[in-house]
């Protein structure tokens, strides 16, 4: 299992390095050119006896043979299923407290103690199993929506900077610098302070805090591609700048961005939990959300530790799934491992 | 070298300027505007009007911005709405706590992360490597506040080895000069106080240091793998140099470059982690103070803290870039 780039917990800009730093452990975006080169060459050279396959098809073949990728995919698929089928799977509605009568100040029934609540009850009398299932739905929604926002915003900025260069690039990169100079969580918190507490605030906050990393990735990836021979060829053929950008440079530059998006889903799930753990998720205290469940588990840590462990494990496993998938995808798309 | 530093410092100006504009607009867009944020939701219209006049919130935006910048440049960040003390004072009182905690975390991360990464790289593909990769993966996917919970539950609640919260046992009568509790205990000769403060650092420090530890281990591993097959390492081996010499002078020195970049980035991210960790361990640093500020919309504090943190973060990145030049002569030349 070889890894070339660290994941970015907290959405940290680890893909962005200072000029001298890039060569060692160079990630896909730094030497993205070979991906494209392999693709164009294999289809254009008539003398080759092997038929060229697309980068993505090739990557998929490799993913199928990687146990880490399969494990990640299984976790992610299960997570999606549980989240989507929550109304069917969960025994009780998310905010209901069916076991309110079973709770006494000194005693909270744990897993297995009452047959009707297989994973026990929480301090409000809510069924922990149901809340975990509904929590999956909440995490998935926040994760996907915020990552989609971050991706859209970041790609727009990156595309502008990468296409036009010059002063546009300068302005865009300064904006990105400003966003980066404020630590992620703090940025999210500031945004949530303006928007008020609630699910939407959390989504927007996480989405905005993800913009810089996508912007920088796409920009650096596009800059590398722009120097490639196939771009020169396209220019010689007289294609317009927009055609070259949209149908040549961009498709060859999105690889690292897609990898990052998969990894970012893991961070988004963790960040969403962190923000609602801090109480920025809004809603009622008994809301079924993993981070929120951890907040209220704090006081009961002495008598009911499982209230903290169960949602914590859910967050970690979900994040693990996306991370494994993202890492394997990166590896599969990496030209260095392709040659092997 | 000086030119590099100068250039980087100049680049800081537009960033901080942009940030100040954003923060200025941020306060103006708070629900109900800055006056309501100052007075709370139940403020009467007269009170709001009075505050608007007193703080100049009724003037044109551009004029307000210049007033605000003037105050900030003269070091006046306003007073906390919660404690009524100047923001700068609050920050100065709490920053040592967070710095102490972060220092513990980063020492922990580096002292374990680099050897772990090196060890994994030396045994690439074998079980030692798999174990190290698994450990570092765990460090990344387990949320810091959940890890804090586990540590607290196991070592404080169940085993009772370490204190569950706070910075120092309140029963210890310790003298505090600098607010770095461990340091204070050492210089005043109150070693029991220093030791007690240190035991309070262990659990939050480990929780905070785990993510950097995992990342440093991974970068070190990838970087050593890359470097140990380099031509100059092969040449050094062929020359029959001692393995220790090859490791220290050839492999590690070159492999450390990306690790240092990562370290710089992680130092900045520690602040985010500190908010969560300090909350769980009731550790009285800037993290837990920020938490209170968030909840009570204490915007002078939030505003001031964001500026301080952004400044520190940018300076750390500057130091990282400069240290690059010191380690790698190639950067200096280009």
UniProtKB/TrEMBL annotation, chain A:
Places the protein is found: Cell membrane
Residues covered by region (Disordered)? 1-53
Q: How does this protein sit in the membrane? A: Multi-pass membrane protein
Q: Which GO terms describe its biological process?
A: transmembrane transport
Biased composition of type Low complexity is found at 19-38
Family classification: Belongs to the binding-protein-dependent transport system permease family.
Q: What is this protein called?
A: Peptide/nickel transport system permease protein
Q: Which organism is it from?
A: Micrococcus terreus
Task: Read off the lineage from the record.
Answer: Bacteria, Bacillati, Actinomycetota, Actinomycetes, Micrococcales
From TrEMBL, chain B:
Does this UniProt record's set of keywords contain Transferase?
no
Query: What main location does UniProt list?
Result: membrane
> Which SUPFAM superfamilies is this protein grouped with?
MetI-like (SSF161098)
Q: Does the keyword Lyase apply?
A: no
Domain named ABC transmembrane type-1 is located at 95-324
Gene Ontology CC annotations of this record: plasma membrane
Q: Which Gene3D superfamilies match?
A: MetI-like
Membrane-traversing stretches: 9-27, 101-121, 133-155, 197-217, 255-281, 301-327
**Cell compartment(s), UniProt:** Cell membrane
Q: Which domain of life is it from?
A: Bacteria
Q: Name one GO biological process term.
A: transmembrane transport
- Which keywords describe this protein according to UniProt? Cell membrane, Membrane, Transmembrane, Transmembrane helix, Transport
Membrane topology, as annotated, equals: Multi-pass membrane protein
Q: Which family does it belong to?
A: Belongs to the binding-protein-dependent transport system permease family.
Identification of the protein by name: Peptide/nickel transport system permease protein
